[in-house]
Design a protein that fits this description.
The complex is a heterodimer. Chain A is of the alpha+beta class. Chain A has helices at about 100-110, 115-125, 150-165, 170-185, 190-205, 215-220, 225-235, 250-260, 310-320, 330-335, 365-385, 390-405, 410-420, 430-435, 440-450, and strands at about 60, 65-70, 80-85, 130-135, 140-145, 240-245, 285-290, 295-300, 340-350, 355-365, 460-465, 480. Chain A is globular. Chain B is an alpha+beta fold. Classes of the chains: A alpha+beta, B alpha+beta.
Amino acid sequence: MNNHSIRISLSRRTLGVSLRASLISLALAAPAFAADMQMPKDLPAYAADKPLPVPEIAKKTLENGMTVWVVPRAGVPRVDYVLSFRNAGLSADDPALPGFASTLAGLLSEGTDKRDSKLIAETAQGFGGGVGAFASADGLTISANALASKAGPMLELMAEIARSPNFPEKEVTLAKANALQGLKAAEAQPGFRAERAILSAVYGDHPYARTQATEAGIEAITRDKLVAAYQARVRPDQALLVITGRIDDDKAFELAEKAFADWTTTGDAATAPAATAMKKTASFVHLDRPDSVQSSVRIGRPAIKATDPDYVPLRLTSTLLGGGFSSRLMQNLREDKGYTYGAGVGFRAQAVGGALVASADVRNEVTGAAVGEFFNEFKKIGAEPVSAGELDMNKRYVAGGYLISNQLQGAVAGTLAANWLIGLPPEFLGEYVPKIRAVSAEQVQAMGKKYFAQDQLSIVIVGDKAVVEQLKDYGEFVDQK
Amino acid sequence: MTPMRLTRSLLPLLIGLGLSAPGFSASSDRWDIPVAIKTLDNGLTVVVSEDHSAPVVGVSVVYKVGMRLEPKNRSGFAHLFEHLMFEGTPNAPEGTFDKVITGGGGRNNGSTRPDYTNYIEVAPVSALEPILWLEADRMKTLDFNAKTLKNQQDVVKEEIRVNVQNQPYGGFMWIDISQHAFQKWENNHDGYGSFVDLENASLDDVRAFHRDYYGPNNAVISLAGDVTPEQGFALAEKYFGKIEARKTPAPPDVSEPLNTKEKRITQPDKLAQVPAVAVAWKIAERGSPDQAPFAVLAEVLSGGDASRFYQSLVKGKEMALNVDFLFGLTGPFEFDGPTLLTIFALYKPNITADQLIAEMDVSIAAIVKDGVGDDELARVKTGMLSDWNNSMESFQERADTLAKFQALWGDAKVVNQVPGWIEAVTSKDLQRVAAKYLTAANRTVIDRKPVAMIAAAEAAAAKPTK
């Protein structure tokens, strides 16, 4: 239902600055210039860095097991709420019902014991905000925000949605019909098919591979299944509530108690899935898209969970390789070769595993050459130590990202909850930049060698079948739907 | 990607506005933004919004040139030029710009719109001076270089492939709809450009465009965040003060009257699997008393799940998968020439676009006849106030909005007036504006259908009727 957002383009890079997504970033260092290039002689130096602000988090656990964290802020007159449930997301779904948790999340705000979907939407609008839910691999998250003066009523509305959704039959039927059409619309996008194929290549049979809905899976959803899954997954002993904004600790805890303290639950909570397999044979997959004018290239492998000791150095390594305009892949494939509008690497670290996925969409005739340049960069980062200048530039880039995101109260709440879902403690947020600064050139090279070796990397190409012959040197490609 | 329904619109740049209606939001929910403005001797206008809540600063440099003013045989040039602004100068060779900002911990981007082109950065405040140096350096001159021109011609063509040619719907709700709705070339050509025009762009074109439109007198720079107005003005003087003003060509008259005859186009889509429709009306010009009512009307009709179109088309009649609106390529207050309000929806294969539009007309007619009730109007305005506040939270977005308002309205302080304009909108205003503009005669419609659907319909039509 949400695959058809309109993207206004004509930007230098639409993938560019995503401030809401996460607080993965940072670095400030000496006021010297980072990169290894001759800097213009008149260019002023960076000023001295200001101290790194670290969010102060007030914490409390309700008697029913719900964790509550509060981060008061003095900025925009708004309060943000993020309520996350562990082991309640896509990886908890029955293999026959992939994507089920997304439907479950969407239906929470389509009717409660007190209000129908229309009244919920109107009520939220009247509070100057919104409320909605989404599923990720490891959890289900309800988010809400409102004008500061409506902080109390909005939390009550959010609690109503979390505690007494009633999944009206009519809404379930409509959600299924729209999900089927939405799936058809999504299948027309090359990126959607590429994502499904690379997840399958990387994770095999693990639940992390099944984040996209299927026609059969949507058709098999029933109200009974939704109610049962809701009861098993949406429960206070598996929940974290983060509150940020124009509200003080006492008031926030008082509102949280009032909205959630009498919420009880029965039965056992769901548990996390088994860890993902680290070693996997690389596969080479072509998805036919006749007359496609570009090839969507995805190159990936299983990686690590967020709590792995390699997490921080690998984060920095993936940033250096493919995390922005100055990254090696962007400089090579876009700024030097002109093969693509954007090339990058995504490092997805989750609760029980992770993945590295590099991507670019390139014109047909350079498909093989583009894959070759990806591998050149992967090889180089494992073979040669990164220079002090490039390392420092990337550390500062990560640190800056932390500061930039930290300016936004919704991003702070969202990142705290997302970290919690993947097993990272609240302190991690404030420790992240110092940890990034401590990474050495040797560590980056070791990460390159360990995680970007060619024989571990699967390749997915979505495009016209004529491009496959450019890929002979990289593997035996199999056609998949 | 993330399916959160927390914003009223899917357009990141679309700003809602508004003020509280009595009894709904409290005065504590008003958020006036500090705005200080100074114009340098060379004509560069400097805007500063001081906010020390984070050691971060947002920067936006807006040039008063966009797609409307690009040369006629050079469609897409304003956007190609925007890319070239990142490709180096005689002082700072290609690569320097990105590396200095990356090393400063910052992010940068640029985008091209009909009436402006904006260049934005956000960074730890320790990087402010190098960023200002870089912006001033590329305002002075560029490294007009055949290699980077060729490189960015390739990159822009890939951008068009990835966003238009290789995607279902291909941006028809903003590219094609303008081509059909407007009469003047300035308003109706494809701002992404044809490959032929892009390939024909020469270094002389690049030089002329920079000389004519990228002088300090045709620009605004805005800073928001951990900087005082005194500091901001002094730094602007230090880095930009010596750049000489350059003559800017007189703008053409791009105005157009409302349309007087409906246009309906059916387009085949080779990639799409689900049909879609774009329904667009020409709207009131910037500064018209109808402008704020238009902003409210769009929200009443299709701003989120509580809106009338969502409730009738997605919920009640179950005809559409989504209903979204666009104000051209920007927001309801960020244009300065003919612009469309466009409704975009994916619809279900068992209905027709005509049925969908007929249902929209029912909602519009209801507003023309009965207006909008007090409760509904109040909650829509409350939502718009909140959206307006939210658009001012990020230092980057705040700097950019202030720069755009200074460039388009001649006064960045308008950002603090807009909530009052919204608050003043009455039900009668909505009736008047709906009746005047949301008519069939002023409407352009594109029904975008999967080719397989068109082929099936043609085959059925070819069969002898019973």
